[in-house]
Amino acid sequence: MIVEQIQEAILRGELKPQDRLPSEMKLSQMFSASRSSVREALRILEQKGLISIKRGALGGAVVRRMDTTQVTEGFTLLLKYKHVRFDQMAEFREVLEGGLTALAAQRVDDTALARLKSILQKAREVLDHSKEDWRAFYDQDIAFHVELAKITKNPVFTSVLCMLHQDILGADDKFAVYDHELMKQNYTDLANIITALEKKDSQEASRLAREHVRRFNGYMKAQEEMFAPPDPNQGQQVAIAEQND
């Protein structure tokens, strides 16, 4: 009851980021509940990422600015603990980015095209001047994908793409592109996507985006296998085989 009412007030905008909630005593009076019930409700709201609780004389519960941090952390944990398999992640990316690129082709305008071309030009400069600056190139690749999502004018696409590229893939070096030839291929992919967007060819834009993601997924799969810890059972299997011999 307490959690739901405060949560709805935050989601409706009645409580804004940085707003301070009443004290536990006042909340207890407002909801006709014990202070222990209020304290538990605040703990749940904090776990949901809706508020932060500061301790001390000047402390209290403050409404947080909504972002993707907690969702990202939870999703990253799922990946690390293999509850989300790599092939599932790859399938999700291919469908998501193919679909949103098709939508972007329908909604793109000259201003958005200019932004994409500016990002592509920066990527070209990285390729021309440094074969080893993979991070600078990867930053432009991420910016390109996020800009595509923004072109759809759908904030759900933008939030998911930011989480996926900036907070998950961009934060893990094993997913970075170290190979210069692959960076050149990525650049060509992005240039071809821009051409399809200029023609407002949704089908071609989607096909190119899917191929681009599929190629990168193959690279990521190889990187994941390279960084995977050794199988602890492999040594036992070898020892057993030797004993049998």
Automatic annotation (TrEMBL):
Keywords: DNA-binding, Transcription, Transcription regulation. Residues 224-245 are annotated as: Disordered. The keyword Magnesium does not apply. GO terms for molecular function: DNA binding; DNA-binding transcription factor activity. Residues 1-66 form the HTH gntR-type domain. SMART domains: FCD, HTH_GNTR. Pfam families: FCD, GntR. PROSITE patterns: HTH_GNTR. This is GntR family transcriptional regulator. It comes from Dethiosulfatarculus sandiegensis.
